[in-house]
Amino acid sequence: RYMGPTAEEIVRKRKEFLSPSMFYLYKKPLNIVHGKMQYLFDENGRRYLDGFGGIATVSCGHGHPDVVQAIVNQTNNIQHSTILYLNHAIADFAEALASKMPGDLKVVFFTNSGTEANELAMMIARLYTGCQDVISLRNAYHGNAAGTMGATAMCNWKFNVVQSGVHHTQNPDPYRGAFGSDGEKYAKDVEDLIRFGTSGHVAGFIFEAIQGVGGIVELAPNYLTSVYSTIKKAGGLVIADEVVTTRLFELWICNCTRCVLMRHIVIVPIYQVQCGVARTGSNFWGFQNHGIVPDIVTMAKGIGNGIPLGAVVTTPEIATVLTRRNYFNTFGGNPVSTAAGHAVLKVIEKEKLQENAHVVGSYLKERLCSLKDKHEIIGDVRGRGLLLGVELVTDRKSKTPASAEVLEVMDNMKDLGVLIGKGGFYGNVFRVTPPLCFNKQDADFLVDVMDYSMSKL
Ligand code: PMP
């Protein structure tokens, strides 16, 4: 039984002692005191189904015993020492992570967050190419430090940042973008940017395989292949920001003949899920068209199951640029975080969370899609695996964002025991990103509760 401070007491302390910019998801903020797998518990012992997974950071489930044990064991052994001494945890996890990567992507730099990982990736690209210009997508979120805030392209996440050397290209958003699902047309904008906004040479192109903060936006088909060759022609590196999607990264690992042949296709979760799909014999993602391997992959969030852990993976050749000076990160790759990361990898494999994300995710998406027939307010349902978005609009034709309704439905769902997130530039997209241990009954409960809450609007 929870005996700690009440929600009201915590709110009072937050108001007095914490950042005034912090906001709550619900009108009456939740005081979460315990988590177990896909469930969260509040101060009164009330159980909630977690459909948001700590914004996609909890991959295996809250308090997964194997991950907790790995953290406890490592903490008891040695919690931290300078990385200038040897410790096996970082080396073992780097090896395990590299073994999941395609091509020559096998050198790992550890960081503490997604922001740090992207800052490092952009710096590496700039050093390697000798260029400053980086291209990112409008509606992207890449972090909140100087460089990554520059690469982020939504004004609601930006302060007075100096936009040095960052250009934002058209977002290949099939639902709201100017060219619908025509990836080639969006890709042309990257060509134009390079031609008219740079010296003709760039450091790189950074993108999210599925935009998370931006509202679970998948990139239009054929876009990446086209952009890849444009960036290569301009001498740049392609950086896949998988921070929000890494919770699914195990889905890369598919050894069926078809997927082995497609190995060069990377860029994470989308293709990971696609691999899962290909294995079942379906072929509805059309991934054959995206024959690219990024030069750098960044990840965070889900790889630590809640422990601060980020990583940048690149090729040995590109990695050598960091030998020109000293590169150092005090906590990046510390034994406890890397032991946790390694345990997460093992759990995903042991519990077949890859298949689960595919099976339950497809089922959940199907059920969410069927809600669209019932509720006019649903403009779009999208995403892959257990990374799904439901966009609400007051009018399907004009696509006017139904932001207030999103908040109302979320609040109602919370009262009925289901937590989901929101995102998108207008805050009108439900983000459904549960822990990967989510099952079909959970999916049914979530959809039924969403259905009921929408009918109460
Ligand atoms: N990249 C993406 C795609 C993200 O979603 C986020 C966090 N929302 C980040 C980078 C930044 O990660 P962090 O908050 O760990 O710095």
UniProtKB/TrEMBL annotation:
Q: Which SUPFAM superfamilies match?
A: PLP-dependent transferases (SSF53383)
EC number in record: 2.6.1.40
Major enzyme class:
transferase
Q: Which InterPro entries match?
A: Aminotrans_3, PyrdxlP-dep_Trfase, PyrdxlP-dep_Trfase_major, PyrdxlP-dep_Trfase_small
Give the GO molecular function terms: (R)-3-amino-2-methylpropionate-pyruvate transaminase activity; pyridoxal phosphate binding
Any idea which UniProt keywords this protein has? Aminotransferase, Pyridoxal phosphate, Transferase
Record Pfam families: Aminotran_3
Does the keyword field hold rRNA processing? no
| Native source species | Helianthus annuus
Q: What is this protein called?
A: Putative alanine-glyoxylate aminotransferase 2
Which family does the similarity line name?
Belongs to the class-III pyridoxal-phosphate-dependent aminotransferase family.
